[in-house]
Design a protein that fits this description.
The relative contact order is 0.17. Helix 9 runs parallel beside helix 13. The chain has a 7-stranded mixed β-sheet, sandwiched between helices. It is 38% helix and 13% strand. It binds pyridoxal-5'-phosphate (PLP).
């Protein structure tokens, strides 16, 4: 069997939970969605959680809830999935990129600070900065938050990879240092809902905006009505929203999977440690986990170190393919996608992310990865390096 880099796990409890919804009277807009939201908030320590039908929807709604408009600028990293940048463009705003750090593969905060200093001089400060918790390692939100105070931008943490991670035991999603944090429940991520995402916040007015944006801008709250009509059939549309709702079918799967979150993340950490132990003698570069940070290890990423050529990464990919193992690349830099090139971005703009994007190799990692499978992966690398 082909060994993929990620594999979701659905057990009998998950199946039963979904079937129960299928046999119920509410496939959507029932009580499973609020139960899922409350369960996620309880685990991560956030005040409000708004489930949506993808993290992409949640990122778009998050940008709108923070007032992003044409003429505004959003900064994110190139080492991410395209949605982290697209959410800005969906609002008619501009997007720009901050290079990554060569050790954490997350946003380089020295670069961020330098770029803020220049932007302040030309009056082109970002309205929103979107750090991404790459591979499950939280970006240094605390330091980003200090810069947020100084330069007056908002922070949306793209935590699509990182439910179950923490910084000094402050859980990702607590929104301690972000205005909004977004999770993804795509099956390749840590918790699967089929498709799904969630926007978390501690701010009641942001939560209210997110709720409206998620469902056509419609309210059924009498207190929010412009026309005070107290009739059962009445509702008001107060702004332009979308149908970004999660169904109860999806929420039931997410809720059932959530009960295994801590086991799932512990297992990922255990397997990651084995990789690190076995591979540390090879000429590879590893993602460095700073003191006090805990990664959820959505991905385990290595790259040939600087003593090797970029072509080594391609040769290693071929070896994996020959061994029926799917290695993946996270990420080919967003700013070099054809669509973003048309906006004017070119090679050389974010050199660290570009080297990473030409050399990184994502090894198979998921909770049910067994000993033999992991040995097979390690073996391909040992043989490549003649060990
Ligand atoms: C997967 C992913 C998204 C989008 O998630 P969806 O739920 O598929 O919309 C956004 N950002 C990052 C970093 C991702 O990995």
């Amino acid at each position: 069997m082909y060994l993929n880099y990620g594999r979701h796990e659905v057990n009998d409890d998950d199946v039963d939970a979904v079937v129960a919804v299928l046999r119920s009277s509410a496939l959507t807009q029932g009580n499973c969605v609020p139960l899922f939201e409350i369960a996620v908030c309880d685990i991560v320590g956030a005040k409000h959680g708004l489930a949506m039908n993808s993290a992409t929807a949640a990122l778009h709604a998050a940008c709108l809830a923070l007032g992003l408009r044409p003429g505004d600028i959003v900064w994110t990293v190139p080492n991410t999935f395209v949605a982290s940048a697209n959410c800005a463009l969906m609002c008619g705003a501009d997007v720009d990129f901050v290079d990554i750090d060569d050790h954490t593969f997350n946003m380089c905060l020295d670069q961020l600070e330098d770029k803020l200093i220049s932007a302040a001089k030309t009056n082109r400060l970002p309205k929103i900065v979107i750090p991404v918790d790459f591979a499950g390692l939280p970006a240094d939100l605390k330091r980003i938050s200090d810069l947020r105070e100084r330069y007056g931008f908002k922070v949306i943490e793209d935590a699509s990879h990182s439910i179950g991670s923490s910084i000094f035991s402050m859980k990702t999603g607590s929104c301690e240092w972000s205005d909004i944090t977004v999770f993804s429940f795509h099956p390749v991520k840590i918790i699967a809902a089929g498709e799904g995402g969630m926007a978390l916040t501690n701010c009641p007015s942001i939560a209210k905006s997110l709720r409206l944006l998620r469902s056509h801008g419609i309210t059924k709250e009498f207190n929010d009505y412009e026309v005070k009509l107290s009739r059962d059939w009445y509702y008001e549309q107060v702004l332009l929203g979308y149908n970004y709702r999660m169904s109860d079918i999806h929420a039931s799967l997410g809720l059932s999977q959530l009960s295994r979150l801590s086991k799932n993340v512990s297992e990922r950490n255990r397997l990651a440690e084995i990789y690190t132990d076995k591979l540390s003698s090879l000429p590879l570069k590893f993602q460095q986990i700073p003191e006090g940070f805990r990664s959820s290890y959505h991905l385990y990423v290595v790259a040939p170190n600087d003593t090797l050529q970029i072509s080594d990464a391609e040769k290693i990919f071929d070896r994996f393919r020959d061994a029926q193992i799917q290695a993946a690349r996270h990420y080919y830099p967003v700013h070099l996608q054809p669509f973003f090139r048309r906006l004017g971005f070119r090679e050389g703009y974010c050199p660290v992310a570009e080297r990473h994007g030409n050399t990184s190799i994502t090894l198979p990692l998921f909770p049910t990865l067994n000993h033999n499978e992991q040995e097979k992966v390690v073996d391909v690398l040992y043989r490549y390096f003649g060990k």
